[in-house]
Amino acid sequence: MEARHLRYALAVAEHQHFGRAAASLGIAQPSLSRQIADLEREVGERLFDRTPAGVFPTAAGAAFLAPARRALCEMASAVAEAGRAARGETGRLRLGFIGSALLRFLPSVLTPFRRDHPGVRLELREMSTARGSAALLGGELDLVIGRGAPRGPGAEHLVSVTVGRDDLVAVVGKGHPYAGLRTVTAAQLARQHLIVASADDEPAVRAGLRALLGADASVLDTATEARDLRTIIGLAGCGVGVGLGPSGMRAAGRSDTWFCAVTPRTPLPDLVMSYRADDRSPVLAAFLAEARRRGDDLPG
C-alpha cells in the first residue's frame, strides 16, 4: 500500500464519482478504478459501494478513510520536518564560549540566528578556553570560542577561525587618578592594585600580563581575581583598583568608568572559533553561515 492509494481513496470519497475524482487527481478514470480495486483487495474489504447515484464509502471504507487521512497528514509533516532538519532549522547546537565572546562576536551572530532558527535548541555554556577545548575534542561540544586555537591530541582534525582580536586595556573608576588619561604604562600599573581575570579562566591573558609587567609581575600575586569581565569593570568603577582585560571590554563600559590603552601595546591571543572539520551537522552549517554574513573570514 502506497501513499497514492490513500490519496486516491480520499479523492473518491470526496467527489463520490470516479470520473470527477480522476480529473481532480490528473489521472485517467480506468486507472483510478483499477487502483481502488487493488486497494480493496489488499485491505480485504470492499471500501466503496458503486451505485447509479454515485460512489459511497462502505462501513469498512469509512473506518479506513479516517486513519488514511491522518496517515497522509503525518507523512506530509514528516517530509516537512525532514526538510527543516536538512536546512538546519531544527536540531541542537552545543556551544562553549569565554566571556569575551559576549562583548562583540556572539551577540552579532546569536541574535539573528535565534530569530531565523527558532526551532534549534541552543545549549550555551560559558567556560574557560582550556575546558572548552577539552569538551570540543571530547565530543561534548559542537563549537567552542576561546583564546587561541585548541591544542592537544585531535586538534589537527579541527577548523579554527579567528573571530576577534584584542589588545590589553585598563579600566578605572571616574574618581581614580588615571581617569582622563589616554594611556597608562606598565610602570604605572605596577603601582596599583590590579583586578584581573582568573588565571584558570584566562591563562593566556595572565601570561601576557606577566610579560608586560616584567620584574614587577609579582603585583599580580595580590591582584583581585574575577571570573567575569563585567565584574572587573564593576569593581574598577567602585574604586577597588585598576581593571585589566581585552579591549572588547569597552563595549561593556559604564558611566562611572574610564578606559585607558596600555603601553607598550600588548596584543592578546586571538578570539578563535573552533569546530570539527568532519562535522556535517546542518545546524552547525547554519550557524557558520550566519557568522559569514557578518563579514568574518570563515571557510566555505
TrEMBL record:
Domain spans labelled HTH lysR-type: 1-58
InterPro entries: LysR_HTH_N, LysR_subst-bd, WH-like_DNA-bd_sf, WH_DNA-bd_sf
SUPFAM superfamilies: Periplasmic binding protein-like II (SSF53850), Winged helix' DNA-binding domain (SSF46785)
GO cellular component: protein-DNA complex
Keywords noted in UniProt: DNA-binding, Transcription, Transcription regulation
Gene3D superfamilies named among the record's database cross-references: Periplasmic binding protein-like II (3.40.190.10), Winged helix-like DNA-binding domain superfamily/Winged helix DNA-binding domain (1.10.10.10)
Pfam families on file: HTH_1, LysR_substrate
GO molecular function, one term: DNA-binding transcription factor activity
Family: Belongs to the LysR transcriptional regulatory family.
Name of the protein: HTH lysR-type domain-containing protein
